Structure formats: C-alpha cells, structure tokens
Amino acid sequence: MAEELRIDVSLPPGLHFLSAFLSMEPADSLLSIARDLGRGLVTEAVQKFIWDHCITKAQEMNHFHVPYLKNFLKKLISEVELSQAEVLDEFYELYAHYMVSWKDENLRKESAKISKFVSFLFPDGSLSCQNFGKFVVPIQCSLNMLEELNRADIQIPIFSDPGCSIWPSSLYLSELILSFPDIFSTRECFEVGSGVGLVGICLAHVKASKIVLSDGDPSTLANMKVNLELNGLCCLSSPTATSERTNECTQTVECIHLPWESTSETELQAFAPHIVLGADVIYDPICLPDLVRVLSILLRPKQIGSSTHSFPVTEHVDDQRNDGSRGFKTSRDHPIAYIASVIRNIDTFNRFLSLVEQANLSMCDVTDELKPMNLLPYMYTYNRSSIRLFTLKFK
Ligand SMILES: C[S@@+](CC[C@H](N)C(=O)[O-])C[C@H]1O[C@@H](n2cnc3c(N)ncnc32)[C@H](O)[C@@H]1O
Question: How many Cβ atoms sit within 10 Å of the Cβ of residue 124?
C-alpha cells in the first residue's frame, strides 16, 4: 500500500508512463518505464496504476487502438508472469476478451488512421507551462505501426503515407517552437510539407500572428484539417474563406494545397511570411529543385512598395526582431527559414546544399546554438540526436 501512494500520475515516472501510453509508444518502452515505477519490477501497485490511469482511460475513449492495447496486455502479462508475481485479474480478463473479439486480420480491413496524444511536458517553472506543465496534442495519423505491434508478419508498409505520419523532425520543430516561443509569437509563419499539422498546432499555442500550413497531397491536407479541428483550431482554405470559421475555434490556420512543382511565383509571393518552416522535407531527390524554388521565393527579401503581397508596406519598416542574444533576426524584409531534418542519405542532402547555393541562399547549421528543451522525455522512439536544425536566408 505504501508503494501505491508513491505513484503520482502528475510526476515522473508515472507521468511519463501515461504520456508514453497515450502517444502509443512501443510496449517494450512502456514496460521499461513500468519497471522504473516499481523499482525494477512490475509490482501489483504498478499494475493497479496502469489499470486505473491508462487502461480504463483507453477503454473510455471510443477510438483507442485495440491491437495496440492487446499487444501491450500480452507483453505486460508475460513480463509479470516471468517475474513470478501475481497478474491482476483485470488484465487476464481484458486480454481474454480481446483474444475472442479481435482478430489481427482486422488490421488490414480497418481504417488506416489512429488517434494518439503527444504530450509536451514542461519542466517546473517554465513560462510556457500551461495546464499543469503539459501541453497535450491529439493527433490523427496513419497506422504505421510495425514497431508498436512488434509483428513483422503484418505487412503494413512503413511510410506508405508519409504526410499522415508524425516524422521526428516535426517533433523537434514543435519542441523548438515551445522552447523559444518569442521567436514565433506574433510572427507570420508558413510551413511547407506540413503533414499532420503538429508544427502548426504548436505555432498556434505560442500565438503566432498568422499560420499558413501547406502540403502537396490532398489526403494529407484533409487529415491535417481533422487534426486542427481536434485541437480547437479553424482551418481556412483561403484567407477570405470566413464561412469555414465556427464558434468553437480558438484561432484560425490557413491550410493550402501547395505542390512544389506547380505553385506559381505569384501565388507564393502573396504570402510574404516572417518565418518559413519545414520538417523532414529533404528526402526525395526528385522534388528538391522544386522545394528549393519554393523556399527561395518565400525567403526573397521583399521590396518596399512591392504590390505583389497582401500586407501593408508600413509593416516592413519596423517589424524586425532580434530574438535575444542568439541573433536570429526575423523581419518580413529578410525572412528566415527553420528546416529540421534527419540526414538519411548524404547524396540527397548534398544535392539540396548545392541547389541552395545556386539559389543564392545561405544555409547555417544551428543545431548546437538553438537547442530546444527535451519536452518528450518519455518518447524513447524519438531520437533527437539524429536531427539537424538549419536556418536558410537570402545572401
Ligand atoms: C516526410 S513528410 C514530413 C511531414 C511533416 N513535416 C512531419 O515532419 O511530420 C513530407 C511531407 O512533404 C509533403 N510533400 C512531399 N513532396 C511534396 C511536393 N512535391 N509538394 C508539396 N508537398 C510535398 C508530403 O505530402 C509530406 O506531408
């Protein structure tokens, strides 16, 4: 009983377990945190904590993913049995229920989308800290879950649906935004290849003054809109589409179809953002020339008096901001891009570098200078050290 009192769901490691569970981290990661909770063993008190705070919560949610829960229960039961401790009856009963009622073949027939919750956990005293130190973002994304299920025999191609998966660089950019809100608040931000929309949701959280999310894939765009709505944001498909706004919206975000290959210079010039963002967009060598063309138009210094963009000319003069001692200046005249990327293929990356050079852009690796806080300490599958952060500006 004394041990049971120690497990507090609002403090680590209890908070980490709940966050990892809701973000559907692999069962092995969950069990590792569960062992921390029980000082090396998944004790009865730990099991009760898991049952009360996670399993019952998951069952109350209409859409919690049954195969994930079933796989976790299986691994949990086997871990406790191996340690020769007692398994709670509730776990056996629920697992037996799923064994009878759920067949893994259903996975292929099921809608390929799942809902998870990404919890950004703020250290005590952080100014960004709201809702008791966490910012929880519900996200609908694709079922790219070989890791979660640990079932190599279920042939679901990973990344068959890249725009509907959460890629590590968008977690990194999200941490960056939440760690350095002053860089982004009251700035007009434009993201290329926005995928599920997580970066845009974080920009809204820190009160960016205007947010434009874009993607070239219509089904990704449709999924992004669902995510914005799940997070209380209104998605406008154009700046004038006020009819799409509902009373439940706390803020509006523009979501546009923007294929890098075919979007015209005039269309792009109309945006004139302060800040351009991109997460894991440097991966397909065929798209790189078009991506760099889009970036260079968005980053081109704006000429005072130019009539191509929709913002008042007076804003050009006095809206420059120097973000603290780091010297990351942003203004509409000299926009800056933050591009986070995992360098998976060095040839592809070098190709990007040479295109950037040809486009008269300067690219700077600021990974060591502008380090975000680790707001996802429970997410063992997220390898932050694999990600580089670059700034891009016109020379
Ligand atoms: C690897 S995913 C990254 C998604 C998201 N930024 C993240 O980090 O989670 C690349 C994104 O770029 C989009 N994309 C790829 N090629 C594109 C193109 N030619 N034009 C516009 N968007 C494109 C994809 O639809 C996808 O959403």
Answer: 6
